[in-house]
């Protein structure tokens, strides 16, 4: 009996762990990882690591690997005058993600999300679109909202 309870608790914790991460940047990074950066127009950004990224897609992928990476300035890196980051990397990634999402159709996939605004979203894409317009929106649960 005890074994059964333990096993059930273990299985439940696995299911919870398999849900998409709550941290906004983590979730955004999960989606950005599938982007093909070659499809994005050149739009160089200089990173605080002194590397020129050919567009925000490339920068975003790099930031997702190294969270201390920020945007030093627009355009190519120059040999001098790096200075501190002018735009926090997480913010830059999120702005890029939202701008890109504007042009995307969310489709009709059923992947119910209840937002902290008490709105039931049919899928995570629709939820993300809403969150791009309201930073304070979070996932309340992966069920329909109670009315
Ligand atoms: C933003 O989301 C919060 C819930 O996280 C909600 O209370 C608030 O009303 C929303 N604001 C707008 C403008 O929709």
TrEMBL record:
GO CC annotations on file: extracellular region
Domain of life: Eukaryota
InterPro entries in the record: Kazal_dom, Kazal_dom_sf, Prot_Inhib_GrowthFact_Antg
UniProt entry tagged with the keyword Signal: yes
PROSITE patterns linked to this entry: KAZAL_2
Domain Kazal-like positions: 23-79, 92-147
Signal peptide range in chain numbering: 1-17
Keyword terms: Disulfide bond, Protease inhibitor, Serine protease inhibitor, Signal
GO molecular function annotations of the record: serine-type endopeptidase inhibitor activity
Entry keyword annotation includes Phosphoprotein: no
UniProt xrefs under Pfam families: Kazal_2
Protein's UniProt name: Kazal-like domain-containing protein
